[in-house]
Specification:
By secondary structure, the chain is mainly alpha-helical. The chain has helices at about 1-15, 20-30, 40-70, 80-85. The longest helix has about 35 residues, at about 40-70. The protein starts with a helix and ends with a helix.
């Protein structure tokens, strides 16, 4: 039905924004509840932004570490490798 298509489009958009399935359920329930409080929706979205920001910090830290390891690696025919040493905890 047209309503089903609309709900699926809503869920696709929410998933494309990275919301978890549980968040999507909550958002859908709030969307369908005309007596909802917008602050409930805002809190779910704000919590998701905080999680994204934390993930970005983690990814930036991983990138910085890998860039340092790549810079430390000679990339030649020698067997010693600071990248592998770091992964093995030998660094």
């Amino acid at each position: 039905s047209r309503d089903d298509v609309h709900r699926l489009a809503f869920l696709r958009r929410a998933r494309n924004l990275g919301f978890s399935i549980d968040d999507c359920r909550q958002l859908m329930a709030l969307y369908q509840d005309r007596d909802r409080a917008s602050h409930d929706v805002r809190e779910i979205a704000s919590a998701h932004v905080r999680a994204i920001e934390e993930k970005v910090r983690e990814l930036q830290s991983m990138r910085a570490t890998l860039q340092e390891l790549i810079h430390a690696c000679h990339g030649d025919d020698r067997p010693d490798c600071p990248i592998l040493d770091d992964m093995a905890g030998a660094a």
